[in-house]
Amino acid sequence: MSDVPSAIGRVAEPGAPRALPVLDVADIAKTFGGAKALRGVSFSVAPGEVHGLLGKNGSGKSTLVKILAGFHAPDHGGRLAFNGEMVDLPLKPGDFRRLGMSFVHQNLGLVPSLTVLENLRFAHLTTARSGYIDWRAERAAAREALGRFGLSIDTAERVDRLSPVERALLAIVRAFEEIRVACAATGKPGLVLLDEPTPFLPREGVEKLFGLIRSIAATGSSVIFISHDIDEVMTITDRITVLRDGALAGALETAKATHEEVVEMIVGRRIARLGTPGHQAAVAKPAFLRVSGVAGGALAATDLVVGKGEILGVTGLIGSGYEELPYLIFGARPCRAGALDFVDGAHVPLAAMSPKRALDLGLALLPGDRQGASGVDSLPIVDNMFLPDVDRFFRFGLLNRRAMVREAFALGTRYEVRPNDPAMKLSALSGGNAQKVLIARWMNRNPRLLLLDEPTQGVDVGTRVQIFAALRAAAAAGMSVLCASSDAEQLAEICDRVLIFARGRVCAEITGPDLTKDGIAEACYASIDLTGRTAPAAPALAS
Ligand SMILES: Nc1ncnc2c1ncn2[C@@H]1O[C@H](COP(=O)(O)OP(=O)(O)OP(=O)(O)O)[C@@H](O)[C@H]1O
User: Fold this and answer.
1) The pLDDT value given to residue 68
2) ipTM of the prediction
3) 199 Cβ inside 6 Å of ligand 1
4) Does domain 272-362+447-543 have CATH number 3.40.50.300?
5) Could you tell me which residue ranges the ABC transporter domain spans (predicted)?
């Protein structure tokens, strides 16, 4: 690369790109009300570079992305150059497309009521000069785009009928396609911004995504990758920029940095990883709940036992059925067969299970789909925290709102919700802080069994440790936990035992010294033999 200074004339920081940057921003600031979300951030992205943008929940990453998308106007004084061209701020809606930027936002930005085809070709269809649409050609183009990335989603399917994984992959393919088309038109590199694209993706989906990212970078276009998964960031990025409290905390060349250095730059202090729990002791815990013959969705007649005070992990490859288990047990999705037997003698056929019954039995469910099924974006934090047990705050027919707010503030302090303002709408919180509110809601009810689906998606590395510690403390006090997750590191850190699923059944059980991130990942892959068939199911679990 030639030694070309940054387009806006700043002195390049050590390790900064020497070729003309694709993106070069300086002094970007943003204030919401009185609160500063960004405080004069500057950084640049080289052509063909995969650039990690990291920081704790609420550090300003999404705000920066939304400024580049023209969604937020920055405060006065910031500068932006794209491929050497100075661009006026604020960007106008749609400017990003002309420049050659595309985005995958945390909420994916798809229109649920439209089809895969309409979502994929949205930009093309809405900007086409002619009023005539050749649907046959559009279908062919959409199939070709999906096929280029090895996907075979039905183009006529409505997006709200796709699985979360398919939705995430569709949004990512759309962003990559937009760049491909824009670059062909301008002859210049483009930029794809991926704002936490991986929480919904199981391991093989992440590997597919990394393949796509590498192929885009190989054409000279650049990628900004935002994630809380440090291992993923270390795997896929060339350089890393870290934000802390809206300001630049530092920049690193990935190949020269260690995991610990990156974490320290994010958090601002050294934090120790949690050790593995006492696996041997945990296996001996007495049974709290026996699940027999649960069948529904991709799950086929599965038996398992959850111990009292046990944290049981369930995982597997895409479509193996483990991800359905929390919803089936909670009565949130229809079951074909199966029953629950509790330690106190209660017997509940799953066909008769409903969320109301589950709550009465002392169960709680934290769904993975934060925006769709878990929280209500338009309601304040306080209401989101106490939606399931608002009755508790009624006295003589009157709602004691002041007590609710007081308790919400105390919970927000315990779970480090930032900003800790119970009156603030959930939608104004960063993604990770919204997840903390929802975790606080269910932990605060002190359930007998807490069912979790990807509990720490979007949660930063420091808070993750706190949530794990809170889960362990609750389990030590007798709460049972069933955690469905594709995050092997998370399972290894918190679980006493992990069940691996394949083709709708339990095919392996991991405990003791094998309960490591690599051990879990290997067991997932070992569940498929070389002919692509899944391994036979393991014998029934002992209680
Ligand atoms: N529309 C808004 N109104 C008020 N405050 C906002 C709004 N959007 C963001 N903020 C605030 O700006 C700060 C930065 O939020 P941002 O979403 O950029 O964080 P983030 O780094 O992307 O976090 P996360 O990792 O949790 O997604 C937070 O304090 C957030 O509450």
Assistant:
1) 95
2) 0.98
3) no
4) yes
5) 23-270, 283-528
Residue with tokens 């609750």: 474
pLDDT band at 498 (very low <50, low <70, confident <90, very high): very high
Strands laid side by side in the 505-510 sheet: 363-366, 449-453, 480-484, 311-316, 497-502, 505-510
Of 182-186, 236-240, 523-527, which one has max mean pLDDT? 236-240
> What are the structure tokens assigned to 543, written together?
């209680």
Do the domains 23-267 and 272-362+447-543 sit in the same CATH topology, yes or no? yes
Ligand 1 mean position to 241 CA, how many Å?
Answer: 17
Q: Record the tokens describing residue 400, joined without a space.
A: 């004691």
CATH 3.40.50.300 fits 23-267, yes or no: yes
Position 102 pLDDT exceeds 60: yes
Distance 90 CA to ligand 1 centre (A): 18
**316: amino acid identity, one letter:** G
Residue 202 corresponds to which tokens in the numbers above? 């199981």
Q: At which residue do the structure tokens 């993604």 appear?
A: 431
| Under 8 Å between Cβ of 507 and 535 | yes
Please name the residue that has the structure tokens 């759309």. 174
Query: Is 16 within 8 Å of 44 (Cβ atoms)?
Result: yes
- C-beta neighbour count of 535 within 10 angstroms: 16
pLDDT tens by residue, 227-279: 988 888 999 999 999 999 999 999 999 999 998 899 899 988 776 554 444 44
- Highest average pLDDT, of 190-204, 401-415, 461-475, comes from 401-415
Instruction: Return the residue whose CA atom lies nearest to atom 20 of ligand 1.
Output: 58
Residue 468 parent element (H or E): helix 461-476
Query: How far is C-alpha 221 from the chain's CA centre?
Result: 24
